[in-house]
Specification:
Order of helices and strands: HEEHEEH
Distance between the termini: 62 Å
Structural class: alpha+beta
Number of strands: 4
Strand content: 15-25%
Radius of gyration: 21 Å
Length: about 120
Amino acid sequence: MPLLVLGVLIGIIVCVLYMTQTSSSSTHRIFDDGETYIVIEGGTVRVRRGWVPERAMAALADTLRNAGITSGHITMSRDNRISISWHIPPALHQTIRNILLLERSPGTSAGDCAVHTG
């Protein structure tokens, strides 16, 4: 009986610690105001958050379609750091960076641009 009570007590403590950890991390924002989030779903590339020039989106869509990529995501921070999901092979990462960064004007950050939903 004392082992059962000890087990229940440890379980309660673990649950409380887990809940406090998840509740504090759920208030943490994944994206800052200036970040861009691109989603690839079912072979369709779209900007979920932020802004990307249309020429860059067309080139990105062509590159991903030619490579047979049907899912994944790409994020671009305000300071032009790009993160690419594991769905996209590393051989394409530099090409994607080039497409996204060459089309972006040097004086414009993502926070200065309008939101593109298409």
